[in-house]
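Me: I keep going back and forth on a fold encoding question. No explanation is needed for now; the record alone will do.

Assistant:
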Amino acid sequence: MNNILQRVGEIGIIPVVAIDDVETAVPLGQALSDGGLPCAEITFRTAAAADAIQKMSAAHPDILVGAGTVLTVAQAAQAKAAGARFVVTPGFDARVVDYCQANGMPITPGVMTPTDINQALDHNLRLLKFFPAEAAGGLKALKAIGGPYVDVKFIPTGGINADNLADYLRLPMVHACGGSFMVAKKLIQAGQFDEIRQLAQTAVAIVKSVRSE
């Protein structure tokens, strides 16, 4: 497995971030780092995404900064130019996958069905985002869908919170989880970085607790 994606697995939880104001990227990175969570998936749900990736990456080289909600090849190219270390997509798009693979960008495409997984396997991908996790049936669905694919690992995202994070991490097919509960947009907008740090610490503690069982 790619070293960057291996590191994501070691961290265990990826903060999925939507940033409206690029000036919040640096203090947000500091809060995550101070909370022991040196990772961020900055989503292309806002116009500030590429600049936020660039600013956080430059200010915090220790943080694994990736690009999420990448829908097009153009966005993937923007993410690469901004310094994103990995790309995450909500669904499987062969054009985006091909671009990332051709340009050395680790990519975790979103899947929800066996057909999606088969498409990913055709592109030699074995680490996939299960999305939207809770809306698609949660733990029970992931167990059933992932069961036949013994060499595939998943990053469930969508509806993951402090209450169910441990349950997902206990599944043998789960590599890590993605979640926004520690980086809610309202907290970022209000500049509540101390609370974000505390929530990051909570998430890290959950990961460590499961990994030590």
In short: The radius of gyration is 16 Å. The domain at 3-211 is CATH 3.20.20.70 (TIM Barrel).
